[in-house]
TrEMBL record:
It comes from the Bacteria. This is histidine kinase. Its main location: membrane. It comes from Rheinheimera pacifica. PANTHER family: SENSOR HISTIDINE KINASE YKOH, SENSOR PROTEIN QSEC. CDD domains: HATPase (cd00075), HisKA (cd00082). The keyword Transcription does not apply.
Length: 433
């Protein structure tokens, strides 16, 4: 198929020409048949008139009225004609008699001979309607056939575009392979090449981004590990040498290194859970059991801050999802709740179901978040109050961004709100079962 335009124009013109010719031919045949019937009727009237004049047959009602006058004497009239003149003036006129309206033609061939012929107007109108109907009827009947043929031709011509659209719609988020079509028309060829070129460039860009984030994190991990070891050794030597640190420089340096290390880990996790890069391994898992594992992982820190944590609701909640991603989601929510809740505070996890969805709710009695900040805290590197968060806890601003990406991977929803029972923040995550 070289061109959709050429194919459509050629085929549609050919179809319209053929159908119009067939409709005109049928109209001609019906009109000719009706005209032939009219001419035959005229012959019958003439024959009947002559037969009656020469006493060769009986009178017949053929729809016309005929009078022949000679020396002002009626020498012949057809059965429908009255005994009085149907018209007094020469030429065409209209008159009423015999209960009908007639079209009358008055002719005087000689001074002594007058011929008057009349035809009912209703019959003339009916004849005109029949002729018009005979002409239009085939055209009207051909319209559905034309519409059907146009639909078939256009559907066939647009089938490459439909296949192209279907392939694009069936592609997954991480599928950037080129689209392949057979018999690509000229109008679609450039679009196909441009789309495949865009896929190639996107694949290269994503690969560069993945390599960049991985390489940067890997390259930073090694010097940070060396720095942490050296800081530990230096701190031990200071203590052994009795060197005082009234400004807390060593503690601040150690906190900065720990923060940078946590930031690198969060960046790697964010890159790994990005929906455009993540290769999900969906399996049937128990979300309640996963939450218990996460609580056990965080319990040493929670106990250190003398916080209370409880898991209520369903003891088992089965759903399909990626175990690594969902565990990271719960870990971020519990970790945030513990970090930003004061010592001796309370944290509550609740598992329920609603409308074919698993619902995980994490609440705390910490300071919470102002409603106007709800939409912004999911942005990467955004923290309420910046680095000077009122809790004094260091953070990277990536935890809720990772949570949002994981929720999107599972086609779920995440909402923030005020806690109903603990007066702090409430995070609600809904995931399809």
């Amino acid at each position: 198929m070289s061109s959709l335009r050429r194919y459509l124009v050629t085929v549609l013109i050919a179809l319209f020409t053929l159908i119009s010719f067939l409709a005109a031919l049928q109209s001609y045949r019906q009109s000719a048949s009706r005209a032939e019937a009219l001419f035959d009727q005229d012959l019958q009237v003439l024959a009947s008139s002559l037969a009656q004049q020469y006493q060769a047959g009986s009178q017949q009602e053929l729809g016309l009225a005929l009078q022949v006058w000679q020396n002002n004497q009626l020498v012949y009239r057809s059965p429908l004609a009255p005994e009085t003149p149907m018209s007094e003036t020469a030429g065409f006129s209209e008159h009423n008699f015999a209960g009908k309206r007639w079209r009358v033609f008055h002719q005087t061939p000689t001074a002594l001979l007058t011929v008057i012929v009349a035809q009912p107007l209703q019959q003339r109108q009916q004849l005109a309607d029949e002729v018009i109907t005979a002409s239009i009827y085939p055209v009207v009947l051909s319209l559905p056939l034309q519409a059907l043929l146009i639909w078939l031709v256009v559907s066939k011509a647009l089938s490459p575009i439909k296949r192209f659209s279907a392939q694009l719609a069936s592609k997954k988020a991480n599928d950037l392979t080129p689209v392949e079509l057979e018999q690509v028309p000229a109008e679609l060829d450039q679009m196909l090449k441009t789309t495949n070129l865009l896929f190639t460039r996107l694949a290269e860009a994503f690969e560069r981004e993945k390599r960049f984030a991985s390489d940067v994190a890997h390259e930073l991990r090694t010097p940070l590990s060396v720095l942490q070891v050296n800081l530990h050794n230096a701190s031990q030597q200071w203590q052994q040498s009795g060197i005082a640190d009234p400004q807390g420089s060593m503690l601040a340096l150690r906190a900065g290194v720990e923060r940078m290390s946590a930031l690198i880990e969060q960046i790697m996790l964010l890159n790994r859970t990005n929906p455009e890069h993540f290769q999900a391994r969906t399996e049937q898992l128990d979300l309640a059991g996963l939450c218990r594992q996460v609580v056990a992982d965080w319990y040493p820190q929670i106990e250190k801050k003398q916080q209370q944590i409880e898991l209520i609701g369903l003891e088992h909640l089965s759903l399909k999802g990626d175990a690594f991603a969902l565990r990271l989601l719960v870990s971020n929510l519990v970790g945030n709740a513990s970090k930003y809740t004061q010592a001796g505070g309370a944290i509550q996890l609740e598992l329920t179901t609603h409308a074919e969805k698993a619902v995980l709710t994490v609440q705390d009695n910490g300071p919470g978040i102002a409603p106007e900040e709800y939409s912004r805290v999911f942005d990467r590197f955004y923290r309420v109050g910046g680095d000077r968060h009122q809790s004094g806890t260091l953070g990277s601003g990536l935890g809720l961004a990772i949570v949002r990406d994981i929720v999107n991977l599972h086609q779920g929803q995440v909402r923030l709100g005020a806690s109903d029972s603990l007066s702090g923040l409430k995070v609600t995550v809904e995931l399809p079962l």
